[in-house]
Amino acid sequence: MPNVNADRLLGDLDALRAIGAQGPGVVRPAFSAKDMEARRWLARKFEDAGLEATIDGVGNVFGRSRNAGRALLIGSHSDTQPTGGWLDGALGVVYALEVVRALADDPATAQHAVDAISFQDEESRFVGCLGSRSFVGTLPPEQEAAAIDRDGVSLGDALAAAGLAERPRLRADAQRYAGFLEAHIEQGPQLEDDAKRIGVVTTIVGVRGLRVVFRGQQNHAGTTMMARRRDAAAALFDFAAAVNREFPRVAAARSVWTMGRVQLVPNATSIVPGYAELDLQFRDADEAVLDRFAGLAERLVAEANARGGVMLELQRSRAPIAPTEMDAALRRHLAAAAERHAPGQWLVMPSGAFHDAGIVSARLPAAMLFIPSIGGISHDFAEDSRREDIVLGCRVLADAAASILIGSDPFLGSDPIVMNGGHHLSKRGSDPERV
Amino acid sequence: MPNVNADRLLGDLDALRAIGAQGPGVVRPAFSAKDMEARRWLARKFEDAGLEATIDGVGNVFGRSRNAGRALLIGSHSDTQPTGGWLDGALGVVYALEVVRALADDPATAQHAVDAISFQDEESRFVGCLGSRSFVGTLPPEQEAAAIDRDGVSLGDALAAAGLAERPRLRADAQRYAGFLEAHIEQGPQLEDDAKRIGVVTTIVGVRGLRVVFRGQQNHAGTTMMARRRDAAAALFDFAAAVNREFPRVAAARSVWTMGRVQLVPNATSIVPGYAELDLQFRDADEAVLDRFAGLAERLVAEANARGGVMLELQRSRAPIAPTEMDAALRRHLAAAAERHAPGQWLVMPSGAFHDAGIVSARLPAAMLFIPSIGGISHDFAEDSRREDIVLGCRVLADAAASILIGSDPFLGSDPIVMNGGHHLSKRGSDPERV
Predict the structure, then answer these.
(1) Min CA distance, A377 vs chain B (Å)?
(2) What's the CA gap between B223 and B241, in Å, rounded?
(3) Contact between chains at B260 and A269 (C-beta distance less than 8 A)
(4) Is the ipTM of this complex over 0.90?
(5) This prediction's pTM
(6) Is residue B435 in some structural domain?
(7) In chain A, whose CA is at the least distance from the CA of B211?
(8) Domain final residue pick, B316, B336, B356
(9) Are residues A10 and A129 in the same domain?
(10) Which residues of B304-329 are buried (b: 16+ CB within 10 A; e: fewer)?
(11) Residue A332, SS3 per DSSP
């Protein structure tokens, strides 16, 4: 069994945390000076671990094994939110580094090929999952050309400033890989609430984003009688309250919906707003549930428009993300490793957050492992995980990587899934494959 | 009867409009270069009309009559909204100038004293009704010291830049004045809807402003299950929908309420907001109605807090403005003049917008006259009024000014109010005084 070195792992996580540290948090948005410094540090660490390291033309840091044969790709991202936590992304990247070293140290796996990767801009400074999209070839050139950050900087200028404009871009070689593994903090409270230490991801939930536009008439808040108003804000409040009243009727157990962004124009205390926007996002692991939500939103808009006054328009605010099933065989290896290292203390669960693995799965078999987030907190300086959970997660990942590369069938022995019973949390638990 | 010169009146309105004109609108916010240019232009026009003109230490342009005896003060404001209309304020100021000239031209009134004034910053760049507050002595020094505009410029710096810092400030001499008259565009559609040409204001409605603060928990929109959320936006939508459902039950016929400003934090599509603010403003001519609205808002907050999750706090977002009754005697003069010039084509009505007359009335008897706004539009480049209504309004104002100064009792003859029947629009119509 590969021997994960806890001190080396935690030491490297601390070293990466120091690059861009602000208090307990990390500020290392994609292509910032600190992000590029972290990427150069990672490339050196990959080289030290015996890999052939490169930083490609979108900033992906890739460490290629010098060993022959089918390879496993492991990684995540090392860019952060504008005010990010220290583990989001970084955990999975340093896990990849440590798994490479642990497998190289073990004669049983030393001849196998493990590549490590840190994708660029998972956190959407320019394009969400820019690096993994580029890597698997699903980044439309027109989207790249149009990409600007919230300060108006173009992606092209950021690439040039980071010295990447002329570098070649890596493409995933599907023939090379047995699959891709990504470890990540959960970013939610499920594992902690259930007193579990490892999550094996069944599905990355699908996301749809709608924007409801309300067009009324701007007026003076003192001189315009109520009966005469076409108040865009009042229509928005009505619509949003209707969503929160009606959506539960068609929701699945783990469906979520969020109206986190509102814009009123002119957004002044004494002016009846003539224009408003409301973003409505919903997520579920089941495309049919997403269809029900979308249909309900359309019905609520049609009902409001039938009443008249303010006119509503439903727009698509983002390209929809379909639910992404993780690879069944890779999941079995992760589940078996979890049961060996933390018997009864793991579960299977969907991922409510999106991840690079959701992009990579379009080209390679992909699977994900979660460790608990303390208090479910993420995208915040307070983000943290217990050190023993961090070490345990890496041991599970290294063990699963070894079993995938060695080619053992995790179900030749006992069936850890049935023993564990963790599948009750996931609707996927009823699938034939049981995970 | 004083002889208003229509060409002179419209010519001066056009000349003032040209200072800061942008297309059909005017951009002349308080203390801007264009505002100060307009004030110097007004001071010259006041001098040309025989008045002794000064610009005081807050920018009020004051033209003092050289005649002896009890005086009448007439005026409004010449500053505009950041993107304002050409008549809001300017109309009443140029009316004052024309009334001064018309009364001076008429031997029956030439010996009477009419002062003209253009107050500063009615439109709240720094302090709403700054000039009239200073003039009547109700501007708290600490409010003045703390005043900054939306760009962070302090009032003190703006006064210095305009060269006003060292100038003395005028104070209203209550002994000098029989009263204050302000003419203004209606800024609403009531006169137009009722096919009337003159409004005599009964009351400037009271205004209360509340801010509801919602404190929840910020979370990831993908990983936080619905049952665990404390979504500040969802609580805001619920509260706002409840206001729009419940307020009509306690409202009077002309009550208005507005929720024109919302702030979600962080206001991002993919984040459950942990904090939100909602401004709730309501207006009515009757303090008892305002009390009912305030009590209802408190009850809705208490009910939400009893449900738990997100916690609501009700704050006062502005100093309340009590309903301000216009002076009964002055109103009778305005009504009688309206009936003489536009028999059956005028009405009595509350003002839903606030005006300098509401400030001045704390120290002097004050009354107001409205002319129709085309389409009810104001605070917009499209603001306009029919030229014949502009001229008619000035004739009514000049005639009322003459009758006030001459001291005739408008009820010695017929009772125009009863004849006109316009009082049915106002709850004040049932007052003993009949207007």
Answers:
(1) 7
(2) 27
(3) yes
(4) no
(5) 0.82
(6) no
(7) A269
(8) B316
(9) yes
(10) beeeeebebebeebeeebebbbbbbe
(11) helix
Is B201 in a helix, a strand, or coil?
A: strand
Q: Which residues of B touch A376 (CB under 8 A)?
A: 219-220, 223-224
Query: What's the domain range around A374?
Result: 6-204+323-430
Neighboring chain A residues of B223 at a CB cutoff of 8 Å:
186-190, 351-353, 376, 378
The answer to whether residue A1 sits within a structural domain is no
Mutating which of A214, A270, A378 best tests the B interface, going by the most B Cβ atoms within 10 A?
A270
> Would you say residue A239 lies in a domain?
yes
Check residue A70 and report its DSSP letter: S
Of the residues B263, B294, B316, the one at which a domain ends: B316
**8 A C-beta contact, residue B312 and residue B210:** no
Q: What's at B16, amino acid-wise?
A: L
Q: Which of A208, A219, A254 to mutate to test the interface with B (most CBs of B within 10 A)?
A: A219
> How many other CB atoms are found less than 10 A from the CB of residue A373?
27
Looking at the structure, tell me whether residues A188 and A53 fall in a common domain: yes
Chain B residues whose CB is inside 8 A of the A264 CB are: 260-262
What is the residue-level pLDDT of chain B in tens, covering all 435 positions?
A: 899 999 999 999 999 999 999 999 999 999 999 999 999 999 999 999 999 999 999 999 999 999 999 999 999 999 999 989 999 999 999 999 999 999 999 999 999 999 999 999 999 999 999 999 999 999 999 999 999 998 999 999 999 999 999 999 999 999 999 999 999 999 999 999 999 999 999 999 999 999 999 999 998 899 999 999 999 999 999 999 999 999 999 999 999 999 999 999 999 898 999 999 999 999 999 999 999 999 999 999 999 999 999 999 999 988 898 999 999 999 999 999 999 999 999 999 999 999 999 999 999 999 999 999 999 988 889 999 999 999 999 999 999 999 999 986 555 444 444 333 333 333 332 222 222
Residues B237, A233: C-beta atoms closer than 8 Å: no
Chain A residue numbers touching B214 (CB-CB < 8 A): none
Distances in Å between the Cα of A142 and the Cα atoms of A12, A127, A131, A154, A225 are 38, 12, 16, 13, 48
Per the structure, the count of domains in chain A is 2
Mutation target for B interface from A192, A217, A269, A324: give the one with most B CBs within 10 A.
Answer: A269
